[in-house]
Amino acid sequence: METPTALTLVLKVPGWPGHLAGQHVDVRLTAEDGYSTQRSYSLAAPADGELVELTVQRVDDGEVSPYLTEILRVGDPIELRGPVGGWFVWRATSERPVLLLAGGSGVVPLMAMIRARRQAGSSAPFRLLYSVRSPDQVLYAKELEGEEATLLYTRAVPAGEARPAGRLSVGDLPGDGWGPEAAPDCFVCGPTGFVEFAADLLVDVGHDPARIKTERFGPTGG
């Protein structure tokens, strides 16, 4: 369990070809009567042989996430298609600074990038801004303590937090070494509204649109 409503699944996928940080998979579930449905989930960790990690946020009225978070048991089969995507990815050969902006569970593919950097021993500078509703909704909380990460709470803040609850603003963007003059590669992931607002904010302060990569998910999910 990552939070009261999210968990990480570790799946063994025979013949898995490997993947890049930022890619995702399609998960398909098929009922006994033949009905099937699928959802896309970001890979939460870099390639590790036949092991694949997915962090799933439960959507109460969803078709897939309640099964994955509450019913699925060790040994139960599911179908995966992937890896999918080749644009919203970070490659360990890059030495450019990287600015990551996450909204809610949009932190999952960005966490894969952070872990891939660590795994590769890369010296590329990384910085994460993570917008989340409240402290109990933070994914990978303990692991992020050792990273260059700033948590931005939108609904409730922990005791002693100087920044009041509120959405991402221009004042939250890091300055020295992370502004447009540093030309970082920017990765933005989260709900559509967050992604559009954050990407526009980066452009407004002078970041090169060509260096801003976005990935969004809709409100239905699950």
What is the structure about, briefly put?
The chain has 222 residues and is α/β, with parallel strands linked by helices. The chain folds into two domains: 79 residues, Translation factors (Elongation Factor Tu (Ef-tu), domain 3, Beta Barrel); 119 residues, Rossmann fold (3-Layer(aba) Sandwich). The protein has four helices and ten strands.
Average pLDDT over all residues: 95
Q: Quaternary state, please?
A: single chain
Sum up the overall morphology in one term. Answer: globular
Query: What is the spatial order of strands in the main beta sheet?
Result: 8-7-6-9-10
The CATH class of the largest domain is Alpha Beta
Percentage beta strand: 25-35%
Strand tally: 10
Q: What helical percentage do the residues reach?
A: 10-25%
Let me know the largest β-sheet: 5 strands, parallel
Within CATH, the superfamily of the largest domain carries the name Nucleotide-binding domain of ferredoxin-NADP reductase (FNR) module
What are the segments in which pLDDT stays under 50 over at least 5 consecutive residues? Answer: none
For the record, the CATH architecture of the largest domain stands as 3-Layer(aba) Sandwich
Separate helix tally: 4
SSE string, helices as H and strands as E: EEEEHEEHEHEEHE
How many domains is the backbone divided into?
A: 2
Q: Return the structural class.
A: alpha/beta
- Radius of gyration over all CA atoms, rounded: 18 Å
CATH topology of the largest domain: Rossmann fold
Through-space gap between termini: 17 Å
